[in-house]
Structures are given as structure tokens and as C-alpha cells.
TrEMBL record:
Residues 79-268 form the 3-keto-alpha-glucoside-1,2-lyase/3-keto-2-hydroxy-glucal hydratase domain. GO terms for molecular function: hydrolase activity. It comes from Candidatus Curtissbacteria bacterium RIFCSPHIGHO2_01_FULL_40_12. Keywords: Membrane, Transmembrane, Transmembrane helix. The chain crosses the membrane at residues 20-36, 42-60. Pfam families: 3keto-disac_hyd (PF06439). InterPro entries: AL/BT2_dom. This is 3-keto-alpha-glucoside-1,2-lyase/3-keto-2-hydroxy-glucal hydratase domain-containing protein. The keyword Transmembrane helix applies.
């Protein structure tokens, strides 16, 4: 679909209340015009119209902010994103480049969302793209790392700044084929309760589909002893268990040092 049509569509969705109010005002003016000789009927019609419009606006307000669409085709599209490292406009591809961001970037407008679906286009430039879901802040989140070298998706679980991860084989998230660096793919991630559905498309055709359950949020982190003289850490001396709730949280992107990817045309919507 042409970009200008998409812009018109999402403009109308973003400003639906205002658009409806405008047409209601036009309808009121029209009624006033055709019934100007019958004041009683004119008044009754305008009252009914006003009550109806009031109820419609209230309903739409309750349903508002249920989606966001971000093209990532200009610098201003960084508004609402919080993080550290590099996540900015990349003019040659009209997309945002995510790299050198150990903490990642999260979209602050969806912090209290529970169930949602995100669609976007992605191009991996160097090995990985980390997609964040159920992030309550930069230290507590789940990352689905699309990893070309590992030929699959590595789930990472962050709790209070530390993390544990699963290999694609252990999580049942190995790719059917192979993702290729430098090519655009369409990704769809549906997050519903503890069920995650992932679709990867190329040239408008689904080439891979994964289903994954968020496991029990009891995370075990290795506790290491610090070597004061050498300044490094020794082998683990025990395990620290942390119970973490991943029942809600926003979306985001993360790539560490040596990892690069582009994203564009992001849509996230409540379900």
C-alpha cells in the first residue's frame, strides 16, 4: 500500500475523535439549515445529535490509544523511545538503526500494556536483532534475539539488570531456513498472556512461524566470587533465584556491540 495512503489512514485513526466531532458539527449545521423554519424540531434534532455524539466520543476515549504506527523514516520518530546507545534515523534505508545499545530502547507509551501485536520490517546488518517484549523498564524485560549465527531465536530474560538466556534448540525456536544479512523481512509478534506467536515473511509470503510459551519466571543467576588481585571473576560459587513477573510491559529493540539491524514501519496494537 502506498505510504501516503497509510499516512492518511493512520492520521484518521490517531485523530478519530476530532474527525467525528468535525462531521457531527457539519451535520448540526445542515440540520439547522433545513429546519430553520421549525425551531422545535430543529432543537430536538440538535439535542439528539449532541447526546449521540457525546456517547460516541466517550466510547472512543475509552478505546483510545490502542495502537501506534511509527514509520521510522525521520529523526522525529524517536519521540517516545527511552534507552541508551544508538537508535536513530538511517537515511539511506529510511529506517532506524539499532546498534551499540546494551540496555536497548523501549517505547514508553505502552508500558502498562498486557496483550498486543507488533508488525514491522527488519533488516539484519550484522548477525542479530533483539526484539523486546513485556519490558517494564530497561532492566526488566524479555528479549527475542533473532540470531543468524545461531540459526534461531534466543530468548533472554532480564531481571534487575541481570539476564539468563535459552538457546534456540532448547526453546524450540530454530529457524526452518536461514535468515540472510542485508535483506528485508516482515516480522509479526503476537503477545497474548504467556503465549507468543512469531511470523517471519519474505515477499508477502510467510516463510517461518513459531509458537513459544513464556516459561515460569523463576530465574537462576550464577553468583561469582570476585578475584581482588586479578580484577576478574572466578567460577560460580552458587546460584541466586529471582522470581520475576512478565505479565505486562512495552516493546522495544536491543543490539549490543558488534550487532546491527534496521527497523521500519512499526505498528503495535492492543489485542
Amino acid at each position: 500500500m502506498p505510504k501516503f495512503i497509510l499516512r492518511i489512514y493512520f492520521f484518521l485513526r490517531n485523530y478519530l475523535n476530532e474527525t467525528i466531532s468535525f462531521f457531527i458539527a457539519l451535520a448540526g449545521a445542515y440540520l439547522a439549515y433545513i429546519f430553520y423554519k421549525e425551531p422545535g424540531f430543529q432543537l430536538a434534532s440538535l439535542v439528539v445529535l449532541a447526546i449521540t455524539s457525546y456517547l460516541i466520543i466517550i466510547f472512543l476515549k475509552l478505546k483510545s490509544r490502542d495502537f501506534y504506527y511509527i514509520f521510522f523514516d525521520k529523526y522525529d520518530d524517536k519521540k517516545g523511545w527511552v534507552g541508551s546507545g544508538y537508535f536513530d534515523y538511517y537515511p539511506s534505508d529510511q529506517a532506524f538503526l539499532i546498534k551499540d545499545s546494551d540496555a536497548g530502547f523501549i517505547f514508553s507509551n505502552c508500558l502498562n500494556w498486557i496483550d498486543y501485536e507488533m508488525n514491522f520490517e527488519a533488516k539484519i546488518l550484522k548477525n542479530t536483532l533483539g526484539i523486546l517484549i513485556r519490558a517494564t523498564d530497561l532492566s526488566n524485560k524479555i528479549m527475542l534475539q533473532f540470531n543468524i549465527e545461531a540459526n534461531g531465536i534466543r530468548p533472554h530474560f532480564w531481571a534487575n539488570g541481570g539476564y539468563v538466556k535459552q538457546e534456540p534448540k532448547d526453546a524450540g525456536l530454530e529457524f526452518k531456513g536461514t535468515l540472510i544479512e542485508g535483506q528485508w523481512y516482515k516480522l509479526k509478534i503476537n503477545v497474548h498472556k504467556d503465549k507468543i506467536k512469531i511470523e517471519i515473511s519474505k515477499d508477502n509470503k510467510v516463510i517461518d512461524e513459531k509458537h513459544w510459551d513464556i516459561p515460569s519466571a523463576l530465574l537462576s543467576f550464577p553468583v561469582r566470587e570476585k578475584d581482588k588481585e586479578a580484577g576478574d571473576t572466578k567460577n560460580p560459587i552458587g546460584m541466586l533465584d529471582i522470581r520475576k513477573d512478565y505479565s505486562y510491559g512495552t516493546i522495544g529493540f536491543r543490539n549490543g556491540h558488534g550487532e546491527k539491524a534496521l527497523v521500519r514501519k512499526l505498528k503495535v496494537e492492543k489485542i
